[in-house]
């Protein structure tokens, strides 16, 4: 019974990391990328997202609750998993370890980012181009955001591989290799989008 419950939790953890959390991250990166077109374009895109109907319900049930479960159970996996990089220096073992490390970094980054933006918005601040410009004006925060965004993108891209394997989409070695290349492309493409958005505020 315990094994079945853990199997279910791991499958749910994997699913929520892609849908809806991963898809939200991609959407968030796309909205932020509007900053490359200028302050007005970004403010319009951010304003549109903030004015969606039932935005608080969507945030709670589509973003925060799934993210909370994924984060808590992810920490459990990270701190109970046995990393064997030292004994077996295979590519997938390194990806296994980096997935756990990037997950912890991403959690810290998301918590801080939510505090600086969403919580401040609830307290009356306006989430706009100037807010992000002020945040990233600090060199330490600029580096922090670069590391955080790249960690989140890596965690999502590498998590896609795990999702495809655990859900039986990529079973054979050949299919897993194809998914490896596909997720590498996802990481590079989203990293370009994320970094361009960050430097558009600088």
From TrEMBL:
Source species, domain of life: Bacteria
GO-annotated molecular function: metal ion binding
Subcellular location: Membrane
One GO CC annotation: membrane
Chief location of this protein within or outside the cell: membrane
Database matches in InterPro entries: Cytochrome_b-558, SQR/QFR_C/D, Succ_DH_cyt_b558_Firmicute, SuccDH_FuR_B_TM-su
Membrane-crossing residue ranges in chain numbering: 12-34, 54-76, 97-115, 142-171, 178-199
Keywords: Heme, Iron, Membrane, Metal-binding, Transmembrane, Transmembrane helix
Binding site for heme: 28, 70, 113, 155
The keyword Heme appears for this protein: yes
Protein name, as recorded: Succinate dehydrogenase
Organism: Domibacillus antri
């Amino acid at each position: 019974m315990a094994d079945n419950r853990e199997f279910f939790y791991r499958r749910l953890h994997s699913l929520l990391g892609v849908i809806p959390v991963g898809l939200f991250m991609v959407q968030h990166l796309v909205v932020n990328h509007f900053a490359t077109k200028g302050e007005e374009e970004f403010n319009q895109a951010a304003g549109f997202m903030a004015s969606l109907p039932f935005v608080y319900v969507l945030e709670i049930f589509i973003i925060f609750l799934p993210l909370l479960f994924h984060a808590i159970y992810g920490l459990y996996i990270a701190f109970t998993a046995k990393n064997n990089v030292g004994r077996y220096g295979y590519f997938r073992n390194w990806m296994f370890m980096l997935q756990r490390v990037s997950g912890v970094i991403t959690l810290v980054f998301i918590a801080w980012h939510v505090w600086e933006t969403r919580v401040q918005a609830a307290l009356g601040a306006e989430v706009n181009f100037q807010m992000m410009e002020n945040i990233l004006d600090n060199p330490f925060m600029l580096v922090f955001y670069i590391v955080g965004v790249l960690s989140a993108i890596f965690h999502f891209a590498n998590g896609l591989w795990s999702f495809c394997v655990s859900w039986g989409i990529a079973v054979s070695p050949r299919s897993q290799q194809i998914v490896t290349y596909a997720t590498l492309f996802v990481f590079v493409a989203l990293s370009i989008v994320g970094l361009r958005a960050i430097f558009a505020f600088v």
